[in-house]
Amino acid sequence: MSQQLSPEAQRNIIEGGRKGGQTRAEQLGHEGYQEMGHKGGQARAEQIGSEGYREMGRKGGLATKDMSGQEAMEQKGVEVDESKYKTAS
Question: Can you give the pTM of this predicted structure?
Answer without folding.
Answer: 0.46
